[in-house]
Amino acid sequence: MAVAQGARTRAALVAAGIELFDRDGYDGTSLDAVCRRVSVTKGALYRHFPAKQALAVAVVEEYFRRWHVVRAECEARVGPLQALVDLTHRMAELTATDPTVRVGVRLLFTSELFDLLAGLHFSSLTTTARDLLRQAAAAGELNPNLDPRREAEAIAAAVVGAQALTVITKSSNHRLSAMWHHRLDRLVPPSRRDLYRIG
Question: What tens digit of pLDDT does each residue of 18-34 get?
Fold first, then answer.
């Protein structure tokens, strides 16, 4: 029972962190405000998160989980290359509309978390893109002699840049469509180009 209560308290603290970081920013959010939002004591918060940075890391972990959920949803519907295109677009949309994703992206660019998590984020995106590109290559979707790792790094860089611009400009963006227009010309044979939706 105590374990379940602890899990509920932790989830509530993370949800409050997302709400307050979204509304007031990382620097403008205090742990006192988080405690008031959830109606818990500072001691209860410290049992889960010994510092604000630890709460922010938990929020970013929720953001990372969102990538895995959306990837699974995309892969369940379409082939690997289209799943990669759809995944990048869906996460860009969520950056503009979903507080967990929006706050996760913002937190990755805060000075306290950048060194800790930004590299992990880029590496994770690169791995996801590489895995899907390798599946696409095995399925005969890609041009021969492409380097999946190099292509994946370029795609991950474009996605991170598009998400950062969405957070900065506070508006949805269509930058990924232009990226995919050029990238698909490189990735797939001309005869297959029209098989893919890019935006």
Answer: 999 999 999 999 999 99
Q: Looking at domain 1-50, which CATH architecture does it have?
A: Orthogonal Bundle (1.10)
Rounded to whole angstroms, the Cα distance separating 37 from 24 reads 13
* Percent of the chain residues topping a pLDDT of 90: 70
What are the start and end residues of each CATH 1.10.357.10 domain in the chain? 59-195
Q: What is the DSSP secondary structure assignment for residue 98, as one 8-state letter?
A: -
Residue whose pair of structure tokens reads 């940075």 in the numeric block: 53
Q: Which residue from 91, 67, 7, 116 is spatially nearest to 15, judged by alpha carbons?
A: 7
What element of type H or E holds 5?
helix 2-24
How many CA atoms are closer than 13 Å to the CA of 129, on its beta-carbon side?
25
Q: How far is CA 20 from CA 5, 8, 85, in A?
A: 22, 18, 32
Instruction: Single out the residue of 189, 179, 98, 182 nearest to residue 141, CA to CA.
Output: 189
Instruction: Give CATH for domain 59-195.
Output: 1.10.357.10
